[in-house]
Every structure is written in structure tokens, then in C-alpha cells.
């Protein structure tokens, strides 16, 4: 990884890792964000979400609107890793059509959508914490082949260094935080940030960026992106009647 590209970044710092290389460690997220320059667009976005929340509470099943968006999220994020399927195939898998699940890509995208839903539903009983994030990761890798991550420490944060863009860490384009202490510390910072920030809506992009930079799981980027999506979605999603919470 090119140290000059990350060494002076305001978003993080460098830490030594294996092979004499350096990894990028995101800074802890702040307890509050300075939103003064974004006051007008944030107010407009909050009002729009409030209107949508009002519509959702009048529906017998709010997921009539939410599930297609979840499917699109699963398709888009999975395609970043080269995992492709179609909306039709995914919906057939969602409906229990076993033939659709025989395709490895469709199974993986279906797992993504299911992991996201299960994680959001778990917020009815558990606070947002590392346990819920690791459980979502385990759901993501259920039933996938060894070549697609079955042996990649499902439900556990990485225990070895990972990197992006090369077969060798020496030529990697990006090296996320070293395993265990730093990676877990980044995720713990994210969960604390999620619980303490007053304005929930604007934190989503900041939180997602920090989580993706942390790459806490060996199976990435889809697993990381699923965790990021869950962290962001948990700001305003529930698993029951009122799916979208008002921003405050």
C-alpha cells in the first residue's frame, strides 16, 4: 500500500502490520458531527423521511415497500465483489423456490438480504452491538461453498491480516486495520457512535465509510458492506409496524 496516499489522511492513521507493511486504521468516530453547513439539505431530507414514515404507518405491511429496496441493496452490494444475480432469481429464492438457490451467486445474494433483515429484526430484543454484527456475518455465509467464504471464520472478526488489490500484501492497493484488537476497536467505536449520536440520519454515510475501511471480516467486501449497511440502517429501521424512525 502506498503510504504517501494514506499517511496524512484526516480520516485515520497508519499502523505496522505483517511483512514490514503498514495498514490504515480509521480514527474513532466523533460523539457528535458538525452539521452547520448541511442544515438546509438535512432538514429537507428529515422532512421527506418523516412523510415516508407517515405513509408507512398506514400500510398493513410496511415491508411491501421496504423489501424491494432491501433486494436492490443486496444486488448492488454483492455486485461489487463480482457476485451477480437477477431480481427475478432473488425473488424466487425469497419465495422458497429451491431451483433458484442452486445458483451460487443467487444463494449468496439471498443470504445478504436475509442477514440484513434478521439483523434489523434483532434490534427488537438486543441493542446494536458486536454480537448482532457477527450474527449477521454468520447468516451471510450460510450454505456457501468453501471457495466463496465458507471457511472464512463465519460469525467472527478476522484473525489474520487481509488486504485489497493484489495477491501479495506488498503490492496491495489498500490494507485495512490489523486483526483482532484494532479491527474490533474500530467496530466497537462504530457501535458506540451509533448509540450516542443525536442526529441519526446524517451519520449513516460517515459510519458506512468507517466500517468499510475497517474490513473487520476476512470475507470482504460483501460481508463488510452488509455490516455497514446494517449499522447505517439501524439508525432508522425496525422490524415491526413502523419501519422508518423519525430523525431527531
Automatic annotation (TrEMBL):
Signal peptide extent: none
Any Pfam family the entry gives: Fic_N
Superkingdom, natural source: Bacteria
Ranges of residues in domain Fic/DOC N-terminal: 42-120
Name of the protein described by the UniProt record: Fic/DOC N-terminal domain-containing protein
Species of origin: Chenggangzhangella methanolivorans
Amino acid at each position: 500500500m502506498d503510504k504517501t496516499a494514506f499517511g496524512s489522511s484526516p480520516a485515520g492513521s497508519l499502523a505496522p502490520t505483517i511483512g514490514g507493511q503498514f495498514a490504515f486504521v480509521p480514527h474513532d468516530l466523533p460523539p457528535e458531527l458538525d452539521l452547520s453547513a448541511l442544515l438546509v439539505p438535512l432538514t429537507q431530507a428529515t422532512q421527506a423521511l418523516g412523510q415516508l414514515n407517515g405513509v408507512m404507518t398506514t400500510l398493513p405491511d410496511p415491508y411491501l415497500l421496504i423489501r424491494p429496496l432491501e433486494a436492490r441493496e443486496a444486488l448492488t452490494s454483492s455486485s461489487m465483489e463480482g457476485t451477480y444475480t437477477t431480481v427475478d432469481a432473488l425473488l424466487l429464492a425469497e419465495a422458497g423456490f429451491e431451483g433458484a438457490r442452486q445458483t451460487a451467486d443467487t444463494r449468496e445474494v439471498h443470504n445478504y438480504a436475509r442477514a440484513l433483515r434478521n439483523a434489523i429484526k434483532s434490534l427488537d430484543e438486543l441493542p446494536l452491538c458486536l454480537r448482532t454484527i457477527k450474527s449477521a456475518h454468520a447468516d451471510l455465509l450460510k450454505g456457501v461453498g468453501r471457495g466463496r467464504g465458507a471457511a472464512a471464520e463465519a460469525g467472527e472478526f478476522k484473525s489474520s491480516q487481509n488486504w485489497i488489490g493484489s495477491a501479495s500484501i506488498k503490492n496491495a492497493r489498500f490494507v485495512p486495520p490489523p486483526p483482532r484488537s484494532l479491527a474490533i476497536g474500530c467496530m466497537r467505536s462504530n457501535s458506540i457512535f451509533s448509540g450516542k449520536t443525536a442526529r441519526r440520519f446524517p451519520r449513516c454515510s460517515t459510519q458506512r465509510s468507517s466500517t468499510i475501511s475497517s474490513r473487520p471480516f476476512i470475507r470482504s467486501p460483501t460481508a463488510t458492506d452488509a455490516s455497514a449497511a446494517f449499522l447505517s440502517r439501524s439508525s432508522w429501521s425496525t422490524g415491526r409496524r413502523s419501519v422508518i424512525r423519525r430523525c431527531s
